[in-house]
Amino acid sequence: MILILLIILPIVLGALSFALEGKNAWYLGILSSLATILMSITALGQAKEGVTSVKYAWIKSIGADFSLSMDGLGFLMCLLTGIVFLLTFIVLSKKSEVTSGRFFGLMLLSQAGLLGVFLAYDAMLFYVFWELALIPVYFLCSLFGGENRIKASFKFFIYTFLGSLLMLVAIIYIAQQGSFSGFSWESFVATGADLGTTEQILLFAAFFIAFAIKMPIFPFHTWQPDTYEQSSTPVTIVLSALMVKMGLFAIILWLLPVLKGGTAYWMNVVLVLSVISIVYASCMALVQTNIKRLVAYSSIAHVGLMCAVLFAHPLDAMAADNIGLQGVVLQMFNHGINILGMWLLVYVIEDRLGTQDLNKMGGVAKIAPVFTVALVVVSLANIGLPLTNSFPAEFMMFTSLFTSSSTYAIGLTVFAGLAIILAAVYTLGMVQKVAFGGLKENTKSFKDLSWNEMVPLVIIMVGILAIGFYPNLLMDFIKTMM
Amino acid sequence: MIAIIVSAILGVVLMFAGIFFPKSKTIRAIAVVAFAVLLGAGFIDFAHAGTPSEIYYNGMIVISTYGAWFNLLIIACGLMYLLIFNKSIADVGKNDAEYFALMLFIMCGVFLLSSYNHLLILFLGIEILSIPQYILAGSDKGNLKSNEASLKYFLMGAFSTGILLMGITLVYGGVGSFDIGTIAMTLQGAISALPLVGILFILIAFGFKVSAAPMHWWTADVYDGTPTAITPFMATIVKVGAFIGFIRLFHLSFGQLHQNWSVALAVLICLTMFIGNLTAVYQQSVKRMLAYSSIAQAGFMLLAVFSNNELAETSIIYYGVAYTLASLGVFAVLIKLKDYTFDGFNGLAKKDPVLAFTATISLLSLGGIPITAGFFAKYFLLKATLVQGQWIWLVVFAVIMAAVSVYYYLKVIRAMYFEEGTPEMLSPTTSIEKGLLILNAVLIILLGVFPDFILEYKASYMAIRDMLVS
Question: Residue A104's pLDDT is what?
Fold first, then answer.
């Protein structure tokens, strides 16, 4: 029951927000995100054998159920959703161009869609939420942001929609195969195991393209830098901290266990694409002068690594001792936190300087020490330095990639490893350009963080360091849930 | 049967109403009441449907539960159309009563098409459906484009009717019967070329009626030229009615010969979707875009004719209703605007948020986005085609075309919400209209969340009856 409430509450509060003024809608946003965090924890407390679930018959004629289920991974994602929205909203407590009733309304609707994706345990329901999360985000991207936002978000929508439709065909196909007819996860796994090789290969492609567009993986990534750059930063946060996770989450829950044969067949292709993604995005990040595009490309590189590791051991991907999967799950959470911190800092910079051009920044370390500390900590986490949260996760992921059953394991690891070095180059380069060097005309009056910006960033830094120092905080949980 | 009789009588009543009641308002009220009465008649039909007493004229007309359920829903859609558009229809010209009368006659044709059991009745149904439309298309007498639409529609329609007759004759020549059951039985055995050619002719004739490519050329001009208040009726209810006749004949009579006509139909479907969608992308006028999009939607509905199974038969009703409601929502905006280009929609969300919102729901439904009815409409047809087996490429093609369609539907949303501008509106939206449009949007979403209401119609009927009894 609490799972249904988890999804319904943001929808109701979101609908209410449309009718309200900025500040009142803001309260609803905070309320909804807090409730998401609390309810996720409560739902975890109610779990029997690690899973909380609820199921009602929905469309009898096709055997689709309204079936929600929260396991450990789902919990982490719901928690992350709550945290990301909460911290973003705290930063937005001051009036700005985006803080209007419809902004918060659309944000809460996308929150509901995301939670639905992470909780759905029925393929039809999953698809419905997958699409549903897209609509409010499309509106958010088009309503708030830079000059070319309308064009960029249009491309984004068409891209992802085409991908989802291919997935829909695959879902229909699987659902009507075999004796297990229905959309439940169990019947999908059972049916998937019975499918012939050719079918698996084709179905895998249909699923993977949908997920690859969402993550995004080379060559399906072209919508991403434009959309990230043009959207208003709070919206970019939703896109990159959460919607990207939809793709990874979907691979773990709906692709690897269902289409094992297809996974084995496509493994090398996906691995190579992912590694190309990593190297290409890192190189692109190196030459960016726009801070938002830089962070966008850095995000592609990180996601590429996670995607590669998921396919490193296709045969025992879901095995309990798959260190790679554990690393990916940990990194999904970490990346959400880190990229959130990064975007919040970008938001602060944009707010103060009114520009995204790195060349027009510099020297703020002298006048804004708190900001600089936050920037450095978050950047180090982005690189994956020891004692930050990304380090244990990346370590596990690289171990997994190195021991991959792919024939190219070593070569791929070497290239993926390049990304760490490149990440250090472009991230530190960015820090240098923003924080150090001489003050410039427009950076002279750079104000340090105000309380509403400080609170979320301090929480993020504590999170980064806490998990970095003692990864078992989360690792124990992740291990037991597998 | 009651619905057929009542619709014809009410049509005549309305014609006389034009003589006795000079006020347009009274006539509009009578028309709405007439459709409400028709809804009651449809309900009575549905209650009796499927029993032996519902076979008329030596088995020429048979009211099945399926047909009666379709009638009921199409009347409900018609009522919705009238409620939203009655004022605009009356404003088209001076002969208010005649417009509504002609619509009632069209309904009569639709009912015949959903219950014929004899090719003669099929022919009558098609004609009763078509002839009032030729008149309606030209109802804006002073407008040259309206006249052109009428003439074009009439010439093309008459031509396709000729082909239909030819086809029926050939089938009769090969089989020796007009009864669709007997035709099916006879066609099971050895087949001569005669009925096969006949089937092809009938396929082409129906293609004309539902605007399938390459018989679609009349559509854009006719829909564009017809007064905007009438176009939604032609594009939705009439088209869906033609589909019911189409599917009934091809599944019940020619179902055994599926392999003989499936390839031809598959080509037709691909062409229709491709031409409809691609041409819609390049339109500057939203009205013409909707005309081409209706061709594309017809391509999708043809999948139901193509899939020779029960799922297809129930889902065409669902698709029809979803498509009709969604189109009504979009045309409701069009009728308010002076400028039909995409730019004319700029900034509508600020000027009239309710209108823009309901239109958005409708457009999303046309595009097939989940939780709107349009999604499951597409879903069920795709599934029906997959069940048919061996035709996955057709499904994939349909899906890609559906993605293309989202492009031009989204362009309207984009204009309404994201572009700056102040649209010129002919008249402000009244609160009644707003209420109706919100009801329409709510219906679209409710049907999208609970598609079983239409698909499991017997259960729905029981539920409605229980509710009324208690």
Answer: 87
